[in-house]
Amino acid sequence: MARRVLSLILAQLNMNFAISHSRYYYLKKRQRLWEPVLIALAIGSLAATLGVGIYKAASYYYSTSAAIGQGAVTLTLGILLAQVLVAILGFVLVIAVFYFSNDLGILIPLPLRPAEVLAGKFAVILANEYVGLAVFVIPVLVAYGVHAGVSGVPYVLSSVLVFLALPVVPLIIAAVPAILLMRVAGLSRRKDTLAMIGGFLFVAVVVLFQFLVQTKAPGIGEEAEFLAKMLAGANSLVDVVGARFPPSIWATRALAGAGTLQGLYSLVLFLGAGVLAFVALLVIGDRVFYQGVLGGFEAGARRGARPTGKVQEAARYPSRSPVASLALVEMKLFTRTPVYVLNGFTGFVMFPVMFVAMFFAKRDPQIARLWDAFLSAPGLAAVGALVIGAYFFVLAAMSSIPFTAFSREGKRHIWIQRALPASGRTVALGKAVAAEIMIVLGAIPGVAVLEYVVRLPLASVATGIVLGIISSFTLCISGVLFDMWRPMLNWTDPQKAVKSNLNVVAGMLIGLAVIAVLGGAASLFVKFGLPAWSVVAGIGGVLIAILAAEMKLLGALADRMWGALEG
Amino acid sequence: MSEVSLLRLEGVSKTYRGATKPAVDNLSLEVRAGEIFGFLGPNGAGKTTTIKMVVGLLRPDRGTIVANGHDVAVDPVAAKADTGYVPDNPDLYDRLTGIEYLNLVADVFGVPQAERKRRIGELLGMFELGPAVGDIIQSYSHGMKQKLALTGALLHDPAVFILDEPMVGLDPRASRLFKDMMRSHCEKGHTVFFSTHILEVAERLCDRVGIINRGRLIACGTVEELRERRKQADETLEDIFLELTEPGEAK
Description:
The complex is a heterodimer. Helix content of chain A is 80%, strand content 0%. Chain A is globular, with a radius of gyration of 25 Å. Chain A is mostly helical. The longest helix of chain A is centred in the middle third of the chain and has 44 residues, at 261-304. Chain A has two domains: 2-217 and 227-301, no CATH class; 322-564, no CATH class. Chain A contains 25 helices and no strands. The mean pLDDT of chain B is 89. Chain B is built from nine helices and ten strands. In chain B, 48% of the residues are buried. Chain B has helices spanning 47-54, 76-81, 98-109, 113-126, 142-154, 172-187, 199-205, 223-230, 237-244, and strands at 5-14, 24-32, 36-40, 62-67, 70-71, 83-86, 160-164, 191-195, 208-213, 216-221.
């Protein structure tokens, strides 16, 4: 059994990281050799920049918290934050990998137990999590190790073990409800809708949980307020922060006490929790995993077996322009694919929940101070319009919708639009319009909650929405063009098109850079005494100029790129 | 059959990145109005590559392709507007319904509302797909997807109809209907260009055939002409094909 599971895991990892595929194209056929070098350089420099930033932040956090004998809380917060992220993103990954993988039709007929297939799929998710976590967690572990003066070898060994076990429990916390949800959803004809609703509920719950935990942690410079809690002894804050999720306390103690009996005991507890959770997942999975998958297959088949006769009469034949038709189809395809919705719309749900949580957390001194500062800012109405405009933009950058517009077609479907008599400009515009409509609709709940909390004047909200529509459309156009230039068409599972796509990272970076530049410029102008509304008008003008330039670029480049796209 | 050429390939070559040998090598052929042209060749001979270049999915390294008077490289949109294409494995958008897919195709090809309603009704009726057209494509069988792709490709009544292995997945009744439809399509002065492995179909249906091997066109003409050239009056198309494409024989 162990051998076949190992073989399955290796095959799954091979496909996930495209090992044989890369070996064939890069080493054997020696095609596009610059590509892996460029990708490695880009990822390496991005990871190094992020890593150094996190290391510095962790070091600073350590120095302030260690001054009051609470240094280990740096580890707790780092670990807890990483685990919350794993749980939030893990739910989507679990549903995508467990239930929407294209290889399920191959794996299920094999003489494997459901738990074995589940173990193989779980290994894939775990491997993906390690890649992301390495950038976020290792700098924290290094920062603590360097500054806390821990003993070398035991700390390194404990760090490796804690790092390896770190995503297991949160992933299983995400996986168990996902499996149970899909078991129930599999019985329904609305399987995809149920999966999406369940996914968003889970995200909302985890965001609220994270928020509650976060309000227990000291911000930099806020340590005095926590003095009372610390009287119990050194690193007692670890218990306060980690009380809602004990594994983070065990991991902290395993690292802070590396080489001691207390550390070893905590390490055993932490690893034991991971093993127990994994066994529980396999036991539950063995009973219900296939039922959820097969239920999905049956739901699809039932649709096909519907009584015949009336459908054709009900068929409609609306005539639309090519751009409108392409945009409509794009939206239908996106919103009917749970993996895309769970990835692309997470921000649409997460931010409103955060705004609600902030509203209820006003009693917290840190948050209250932030609110006071915001609400009493000079020219709040103008600042509010800018914030709303920026909100649309951030959603567009985070959503992955424009930056995967062509990648989502994949090798399987790209031929459909390529064979149609539509120019590259028409196709790109259709995709950009679709992305824009989804982002604007997704931004409305957040704006509504924000308006309820802040009570901005109507003119401010309206200006903000107009700014937001323009700003997000600039990103939609650039995202679609970027993805048209280098689409990731080689994927077997749709989740890869959005999850393992570097274009999404590029989108986030472009979004961050633009927000930093425009936001910095706006605050500088306000500081220099420029009227706040004139800054809004200025930003609006810049955005319109960018949009006009992008439309020119679209006209100049899209047809050429569309022609060069071979699929 | 007319002398007007609806599809013309001149000196077309394509070598994939990293490959040492061309997939298609200096290919020239012409398909006339009213003609059904069968494109034959063993696996990996270059049939699909040629077809993909004709419909604009791949760019040739050299040569010219003209579809209904439009150079595919110079005016791809006009060329595609006069072309209908069905790939060998029509992977359609699984999460659209059949009618949603057909409406997309009709919108982009600019088929007017009344015309599309008539054509869709006609074609779906012919392929007996009408009752399923409101269901999502995911629930279709392979044959149903094939029929839907054929319907989409014929909606605008294309002058040049290109098909890659069209018979795969069709049941005998649909296959027969489809062959009749190909003939009636050509009778309107259009042309059908299709690749196939089913040599009996090619022999019975095609006005002319072209045989491609290792990227090069090694024979082209009516089956009768090919027999005459080989001076073997009793040879079937299968015999001719097997002898011409025998492994190890560079023609």
